[in-house]
Specification:
Radius of gyration: 20 Å
Order of helices and strands: EEHEEEHHEEHEHEEEEHEHEEEHE
Number of helices: 8
Distance between the termini: 60 Å
Largest sheet: 9 strands, mixed
Structural class: alpha+beta
Bound molecules: ligand PPE
Length: 318
């Protein structure tokens, strides 16, 4: 006799996100449900963003909202999604989720996906896309210890996909199967995060972060090539130049990273996270680097509205 299987309730999750902006309306999380025949669930046909809002002296503010919303619509364009909302409406949805949940600071996840109108690989019968915005309180991405002592990385056996295999500059759900495989491998190996190389063996990016390293006081940013054009990367390069660092964009090899004085990862979720070890080799002193920590402080000052110079990056939630 077959064992009794107790199905989990649809939409059951341990994550508490409060109110969600779901196709234009704010609803409780329990009501923001989709069909099991959702195209995106079968084929990864979704696009998303990761955005942070920070507590500032003038109330909560979203960091680089317009750049994130622009990338969201660009990702949708790559997938030929018809978006049923304008960028202004999605921006307003983002602000309303923060406002209505009463968050002081949070991580925001806009998602657009191909719905359940039809199955079969071609997604376009599912146009227009469906859209939601959720938000939750999220602390450090890789844990406080990784920020204090530096994260331990391993190079993944999974390569970052070439530009003619997947659209790496679009934040497409399906791309993250590659990230998830790398992240699982890192976790199983006892590391905090995975470094992915490109098909030629050059350094690409982390499973969810762009990479930088220091040689002396020169800051090297891993060039875009196949990587996501990170908004944090752009912000950190600007902040570093303002602090007087020389910044160069390079194509680097993994042994070049072993020889670096400092290394760190950046992303909306990861912010600026120092790296202490790569493939069991200490980077510099094997701890969080001094210039890295200086950049982390300056980046957070900008994001948290504590440096008026970067006020144009903030959208206040009113
Ligand atoms: N590369 C990848 C592959 C990536 O996913 C991110 C963001 C970045 C670089 C940095 O991009 P930006 O956030 O614009 O600076 N990763 C998001 C998803 C994290 C997750 O676990 O989910 C993020 O940081 O929000």
């Amino acid at each position: 006799m077959a064992a009794e299987i107790k199905p989990k309730l649809g939409g059951e999750t341990k994550m508490k996100t409060g109110l969600i902006w779901f196709n234009g309306h704010t609803v409780p999380q329990e009501e923001a449900k989709v069909s099991v025949l959702t195209h995106a669930m079968h084929y990864g046909t979704s696009v998303f963003e990761g955005i942070r809002a920070y507590e500032t002296p003038k109330g909560p503010a979203v960091f680089r909202l317009s750049e994130h919303v622009e990338r969201f619509f660009h990702s949708a364009k790559v997938m030929m999604f018809e978006m049923p909302f304008t960028p202004e409406q999605v921006s307003e949805g983002i602000l309303s989720v923060i406002r209505e949940n009463g968050y002081k600071s949070c991580y925001i996840r806009p998602l657009a996906w191909m719905g359940a109108t039809s199955l079969g690989v071609n997604p376009l019968p599912n146009n227009p896309a469906e859209v939601m915005v959720a938000a939750w309180e999220w602390g450090t991405y890789l844990g406080d210890e990784a920020v204090r002592k530096g994260a331990k990385l391993i190079t993944s056996s999974w390569a970052r996909f070439p530009a003619n295999v997947m659209p790496g500059k679009a934040k497409v759900g399906g791309n993250y199967v590659n990230s998830a495989l790398a992240r699982i491998e890192a976790q199983q190996a006892g590391a905090d995060e995975a470094l992915l190389l490109d098909k030629e063996g050059f350094v690409a990016e982390g499973s969810g972060e762009n990479l930088f390293f220091f040689k002396g006081k020169v800051l090297y940013a891993i060039e875009h090539s196949v990587n996501l054009m990170g908004i944090t990367r752009d912000s950190v390069m600007a902040v570093a130049r303002d602090l007087g660092y020389e910044v160069r964009e390079v194509r680097a090899t993994r042994d070049q990273l072993y020889m670096a004085d400092e290394m760190f990862m950046v992303g909306t979720a990861a912010e600026v996270t120092p790296v202490s070890y790569l493939d069991h080799r200490a980077i510099g002193k094997g701890t969080a680097g001094e210039h890295t920590l200086k950049l982390r402080v300056a980046y957070l000052e900008a994001a948290q509205g504590r440096n008026p110079k970067y006020d144009a990056w903030l959208t206040y939630v009113r």
